[in-house]
Phosphatidylinositol 4-phosphate 5-kinase (Daucus carota subsp. sativus), 746 residues
Amino acid sequence: MKAWEATVRKSQAVARKRAKSIFATMTVAHADDTEVNSPVDGGDIEKSFSSGDVYTGQWQNNCPHGQGSFVWADGSLYIGEWVKGQMTGRGKYTWVGGASYEGQFKDGFFDGEGIYSGSSNDIYIGKWNMNVKHGTGTRHYANGDSYDGDWRRGVQEGNGRYAWHFGNQYTGEWKNGEMSGNGTMTWKNGNVYEGCWEAGLPNGSGIFRWEDGSFYEGVWNSDSKEQNGTYHPATEDAEDFDWEPQDVMIELVDCRVCEGESIPIYPSQKMLSWPTGQDGKSFKGRDGKTRSRRKSIDSRLNSGSETSWGSETDLTSEISNRNSVDGKEINEGLGNLQIDDWDESSGIPKNIRIRPPRRQGQTISKGHKNYELMLNLQLGIRHSVGRPAPATSLDLKPTAFDTKEKVWTRFPPEGSKNTPPHQSCDFKWKDYCPLVFRTLRKLFKVDPADYMLSICGNDALRELSSPGKSGSFFYLTNDDKYMIKTIKKAEVKVLKRMLPAYYSHVRACENTLVTTFFGLHCVKLTGSAQRKVRFVIMGNLCCTETPIHRRYDLKGSSLGRITDKPESEIEATTTLKDLDLSFIFRLRNLWFEEFCRQVEKDCDFLEQERIMDYSLLVGIHFPGNPSREGNQESDKVGTSPLSTPGMDRSSSGETPIKLGVHMPARVEQTVRSFETQLIGDPTGECYNVILYFGIIDILQDYDISKKLEHAYKSFQYDATSISAVDPKQYSKRFRDFILQVFVDDN
């Protein structure tokens, strides 16, 4: 510990010396002070904080602005440009271990052109977007490998060239960090494979050539049974030799893409920013009227310390006379502010009342009317998923989608050769397209054991309090991962019909926003009733440890699209609609581009399948939630999206974030000029949030009932305002609306 403290003190001393050699004479505070004499706006300052951090440089509006350096207590250092308290412009950040980044910053993130030099000589030179490699760039790995080409969301994607240190080289297309598409592999000995690739291996048509001119041409597959082709010798009298196409697969085992050095904690995860005197500015709304802006706080996590730019005595003086809130002791720091102190600067819109989220649904226990039905479902799932099955390829044959065969499994209470004894009633079970859904679960990276445990474990399912508009009932698993919905026969037909296209779509689009389906089943109760209950199992979009404070179901239509509830009665589980929405969602450029592309692809798919009446479900978490009703660990006052548990690893780490899941964003509050206005005028009031969103309810086709509904309502209302419209018109209206609600946060 003494050695480490000495290292930190030495690092700080060196950093201060470097900073003073760059900047002019500073106003120096006492080392133990947390306040300095207020500098003239635009002047220079040296400011020490109680955490041990030190800032030296230009100062304006009570925060760093201009050239300056910041030394953290752990010895890390930033030297470069600042804008309103944020590292923005050109600069250099150095970690204690020797790694460094030099290039462009924006709001504390690596953003633009930059060079990262790792402590183990791992170097990346290229473009960044919000701490993620994105664009063109070159990476030299510590083991001698190198990659030069396109990057997307932190991994190789697009066109690029990878050279291994032992001499092999691949040039071609990449996807999600693996060789996928058309490409050429050249071995050190001169052999060449040119053709199709998937997940790092030859897959599809391709040619393997030897240096002597002989070649093998055919269809390649990692499964030897699917492999077929023809060998062409260099000369007619050449002798056959012992070689198999699978030998190429074995040789490629060593041609793995290097993971490289992981980046230590990012500077954006360490900085904290406060109001910079910008409140009071005005803006013009869509109606041309001038409105005033509210001040807001954009707070960020400081690893091991909380550094505020403003005078600490000003902040603490507001707190010093308060030692408790509602009779409870409070800790030191900015979190001591009472609820009322946050009315103008918290991370929550003033007109929104946030209540602690409560758990949805009623547990189905013995005596519940659907208790036996739940047992039947769990028994059937355990039977279907638990059966041993051979490894499946993602390339499914058309016969896998055949739904004409009707195979029912009977579950008598006393048990049978294939089924266990149970305490429920006698019933029959049908599993639709089991191979397809088994492969879908594999595609969605769902572990069979975890899946079965979630649905069929010791914990009971929970039934949501009221059925949906269609009359369907919803059930949630105890861990909230999966939602089970009862559906009508017509919806089963729609899903079976669109299943081949659905499978192709979700396989081609890894970031698809459409509902994830994991199983389609039917329970047939025996006896006089002979009732059939059909189920579909889906992923729960809002399954997260981060509480969802607001959820919206958005379609882009206005007729009946409002929730008739006062704000005081709206809970976290209330699903609001289009005319309840008072926000515009602002996504960072990296995710906004991906969002636009995916909405277009998903809408095209649904339009081709003649689907309508779907919606975008959006869940919002307000990180700065000073809830009056109670405190939750993840909702401490003063936190931000970047300080939410698990947030930094996905937003600023090497692991790519999945579209629509735990996405950092900002919402801008809007005001409607008239009641039926779908999208209100922006007010300039912005808040940091975390978003969850996806397209749901995709099993309604434009059948005769919807056509009649459209015709009937068109006589009474504006045809563009009703939900039931032709799929082509619905798709256009939906995407136009969504791409106005979601905008690029430049």
In short: The chain has eleven helices and 36 strands. Residues 476 and 483 are 5 Å apart (CA to CA). Residues 19-39, 273-307, 311-346, 625-656 have pLDDT under 50 and may be disordered. Residues 2-22 form the longest helix (21 residues).
